[in-house]
Design a protein that fits this description.
There is one protein chain. The chain has one domain. The longest helix has 28 residues. It is built from nine helices and no strands. It has about 220 residues and is mainly alpha-helical. It is globular, with a radius of gyration of 18 Å. The C terminus is likely disordered.
Length: about 220
């Protein structure tokens, strides 16, 4: 099933390329920071799964968790407008930074994969993205927000972060020699990643503006 890795990489690069092609749609908004983040994700995955596949560079995965988690939290916070939700997002960012700092002190980032900080970061991202979606659902202009690029980006990353911890914990803690079960878990992971980055890539094509530009026109 190694060929599925190439399909996953294709979708990750497709999301980054789509963000690049349609950059003019959102370059004057906080969403502009999603462009380097998507390229980082694609290039890091390519390096880990293709270029450095024979080796175990845990440090790359650890940096990945820190950059992606804090990046998504900060970008999401910049898209919030209600002061209470902004305050909650700020707390989530601080918690994430503290958790990663503690992990860096207590574990060897070159050898250990941070299972617990990864789980915490996933929960924090889900909470932050949910805050954004709630804010849009409470808006009277939900029809306009359906063309908001970040709405699609949020949905894509929610798909990934809701499903991926279950997949990873199943892989790490499920004691079984069943090849069928292992392949089933891998297939679920494959579908989740494809759905995530496929949704994001489509969002840059489908969207015509960002939340900040919408608010200026309301």
């Amino acid at each position: 099933m190694d060929y599925l890795i190439y399909i996953v990489l294709l979708f990750e690069f497709a999301a980054a390329i789509s963000a690049t092609v349609y950059y003019k749609k959102y370059k004057a908004t906080p969403l502009k920071w999603i462009l380097p983040l998507l390229w980082y994700i694609a290039i890091n995955e390519f390096a880990c799964h293709i270029l450095l596949a024979p080796y175990r560079f845990e440090i790359l995965y650890n940096f990945y968790e820190v950059i992606v988690c804090l990046g998504l939290l900060i970008i999401t916070r910049l898209h919030l407008s209600h002061h209470i939700r902004i305050a909650i997002a700020n707390v989530l960012i601080v918690i994430s930074a503290i958790a990663f700092t503690i992990t860096a002190i207590t574990q060897d980032p070159f050898k250990d994969w941070p299972v617990y900080s990864f789980t915490l970061s996933t929960i924090l991202i889900i909470i932050a993205l949910t805050l954004y979606l709630v804010e849009q659902l409470r808006s009277n202009k939900i029809g306009a927000y359906s063309r908001d690029i970040f709405l699609w980006v949020s949905i894509g990353f929610l798909i990934f972060h809701i499903s991926y911890p279950v997949i990873m914990f199943s892989r790490y803690f499920l004691v079984t020699d069943s090849v069928f079960l292992y392949e089933a878990i891998f297939l679920i992971q494959f579908i989740a990643v494809i759905a995530c980055y496929g949704t994001i890539a489509f969002g840059f094509y489908r969207g015509v503006h960002s939340a900040t530009s919408i608010r200026r026109t309301l």
